[in-house]
Design goal:
The complex is a heterodimer of chains A (528) and B (62).
Chain A (H helix, E strand, L loop, with lengths): L1 H20 L2 E5 L3 E5 L6 E6 L2 E7 L5 E2 L5 E4 L2 H4 L4 E9 L5 E9 L16 E3 L5 E3 L6 H20 L4 E3 L1 H10 L9 E6 L5 H17 L3 E6 L2 E7 L5 E12 L2 E4 L3 E4 L9 E5 L2 E5 L3 H9 L16 H11 L6 H11 L10 H9 L5 E5 L5 H8 L4 E5 L6 H10 L3 E5 L5 H12 L5 E6 L7 H14 L5 E11 L10 H10 L3 E8 L7 E9 L2
Parallel strand pairs in A: 12-15, 20-21, 20-23, 21-22, 23-24
Antiparallel strand pairs in A: 1-2, 2-6, 3-4, 3-7, 5-6, 7-8, 9-10, 11-12, 13-14, 14-15, 15-16, 16-17, 18-19, 24-26, 25-26
Chain B lengths: L1 H43 L3 H13 L2
Helix pairs in contact in B: 1-2
Classes of the chains: A alpha+beta (528), B mainly alpha (62).
């Protein structure tokens, strides 16, 4: 009873203060938070049972309603959690003045709403709009491994001739608060290369990744100039350390992925120091000026809902210089994060059945763009040693578990057709292995771009040069679209095959029907 | 005059596309240089064990 009274008083206090400021919450429901906004655009925090889950900008992130009120719609990713009771607080981020503080019920659930991940760790929305464990719910002890990793990586880079320093949110936290920002979820490192062209900086970044991989860290490349180093922490969760490369070109500093400004060399080098949780790390000589380049002149004012407003010419440069090797990969990784661990169905596509019917037993099958590897698993089950290739190999985890349990000849390998290094290295590996092959490419050509298609045909040409056949399906655009597919004209596929030295053995168009959700173009080809 | 402006707008747009095309060569040039250094040079040595090791090491770091 006492706490109910206290909460009622808090609500009354909140209403009084809000009325004074003019901003007030009208209602909270399944659609979002309806409010009257007054004053400057500023950050508003939303707390569920005393924990900050989401922050939004009063004007930027709200929609104007016909009655003059504004609606802050719940982010899509929050929707699935909104079932049950909670004490909901809507408050000013800086002043912590509450505009709303009440017990609220969503849906028909009778439990407290809990924002936790599969491991049971408390999560909240970070600045990228993703759910992740936030530093504010993690104990100092839990952050020690991340500090250790930052130290190990910066020392290792120093030994390799690279002077790295905490960057972006990590630099901001260190300089402004001496610790990690509570609403942040990862740690960023940056360095400014001694090279002055993107091509040289990219090569240096490739070499760095090799050195770091050799030292036993898992890595994940985002672009030609940035990659992530995975660090496993004490509680078993994996936390990413992003390493962003930068370079000077004619008086401008470019630092992936947001900075491209006029800058002086001696504002970076020689490096000074900053402090994170009592530990010293290298820092740019003028961290204040770099923070201004990253977050604007108001970087000293906390803003957990900050969004980069990188000028278009800088984005255009970064896109053309460094990006284009992970085309649509993140979408597939998200898709497979949910379903990749499940066992695929036992059936097979018509395309895989045709390959099996026309291919000699024991032939090695390369399933390129295998996805969840349902066809690859089925083919392995029929005695074809099969390689499931994908640039998001986690999709094949369920199939691989089954294949291992049943002793089937299935392997999963990473192949990224939009990254030439990946395709060329795998081509080199395959040329050293003899034996007949066949290739399956079901919805690959229609799920990649021009660079990926070109690389695929070059890969097929070498892999199948012993006379093996390619079996490929594309979506014609008729019927239901599938995830990640773009309509592709089968005649264009036939032309591509021929322009890469292949012969088209057959081209069929299969219309949508009761059994077939979408229209297909099916090409069978070979190389002599 | 408006025709002249339209022509210049068209030319600026074409130049922007051409600049983007040139910029894209940086990444592919770096990729090719990396492949030459890490794979092609070991292959020229014709040492089978070293070639296999170079391919494996290269793929692991991607």
């Amino acid at each position: 009873m006492a706490s109910r009274t206290a909460s009622r008083w808090a609500a009354i206090r909140g209403r009084i203060t809000a009325a004074l400021r003019g901003t007030r919450v009208i209602s909270v429901d399944e659609a979002g938070i309806e409010l009257v906004a007054s004053g400057d655009d500023r950050v508003i925090d939303v707390l569920f049972d005393d924990r900050r889950i989401w922050s939004f900008w009063l004007r930027r992130d709200t929609d104007l309603l016909s009655n003059g009120h504004r609606l802050a719609p719940w982010p899509d990713r929050m929707q699935r959690f909104l079932d049950g009771h909670t004490r909901l607080v809507v408050r000013e981020h800086v002043a912590t003045t509450a505009h709303f503080d009440r017990e609220v019920t969503f849906g028909s659930g009778d439990r407290r709403i809990a924002f936790v991940n599969k491991r049971g760790l408390e999560i909240s929305l970070d600045k990228s709009g993703r759910f992740s464990p936030t530093f504010s719910v993690r104990s100092e002890e839990q952050l020690v491994p991340l500090l250790d990793a930052m130290e190990v990586v910066t020392t290792m880079l120093h030994d390799l001739g690279i002077e790295a320093f905490p960057a972006y949110g990590t630099l901001l936290g260190a300089v402004r608060e001496g610790t990690f920002l509570g609403h942040d979820s990862d740690a960023d490192l940056g360095y400014v290369s001694s090279y002055s062209t993107p091509a040289e900086m990219i090569r240096e970044s490739f070499e760095l990744q090799r050195q770091i991989t050799e030292r036993g860290f898992a890595t994940h490349r985002y672009s030609g100039g940035a990659f992530r180093i995975d660090v496993t922490e004490a509680d078993g969760s994996s936390r990413g350390l992003d390493l962003f490369g930068g370079f000077f070109d004619s008086g401008r500093l470019y630092l992936l992925g947001e900075v491209g400004v006029p800058f002086e060399h001696d504002w970076i080098h020689p490096l000074g120091t900053c402090t994170l949780m009592g530990r010293a790390f290298p820092a740019p000589a003028r961290p204040d000026l770099l923070l201004e380049a990253m977050y604007g002149p108001r970087w000293r004012v906390p803003d957990p809902a900050y969004r980069f407003e990188t000028p278009q010419p800088v984005i255009d440069r970064f896109n053309a210089w460094f990006r284009g090797t992970t085309v649509w990969r993140r979408d597939w990784e998200r898709e497979f994060a949910l379903t990749g661990g499940r066992r695929p169905g036992r059936g097979a596509s018509g395309l895989a059945r045709r390959l099996a019917a026309e291919t000699e037993a024991g032939t090695q099958v390369l399933d390129v763009g295998a996805g969840r590897a349902r066809d690859a698993l089925w083919l392995a089950g029929r005695g074809f040693p099969t390689t499931a290739y994908d640039y998001a190999p986690r999709g094949a985890r369920g199939a691989m578990r089954l294949a291992t349990a049943e002793g089937l000849p299935l392997e999963s390998r990473t192949l990224n057709l939009t990254e030439w290094r990946s395709m060329l290295a795998e081509t080199a590996r395959l040329t050293r292995i003899d034996g007949p092959r066949a290739m399956l490419a079901r919805h690959l050509v229609d799920a990649t771009n021009r660079v990926g298609r070109d690389a695929f045909l070059r890969f097929a040409r070498v892999a199948l040069r012993g006379g093996g056949r390619l079996y490929a399906d594309v979506w014609t655009g008729e019927g239901e679209p599938g995830f990640g597919l773009h309509p592709f004209d089968p005649d264009r596929l036939a032309e591509l095959v021929e322009s890469h030295g292949g012969s088209v053995l057959s081209l069929e168009r299969l219309a949508p029907s009761d059994k077939r959700a979408r229209g297909l173009g099916r090409v069978v080809a070979s190389w002599s | 005059m408006s025709r002249r402006v339209a022509q210049l707008q068209q030319r600026v747009s074409e130049l922007e596309d051409e600049i983007a095309e040139l910029r894209r060569h940086h990444l592919r040039l770096a990729e090719l240089a990396d492949v030459v250094q890490e794979l092609l040079i070991p292959m020229a040595g014709r040492d089978e064990a070293r070639i296999a090791e170079a391919i494996e090491k290269f793929q692991k770091s991607l």
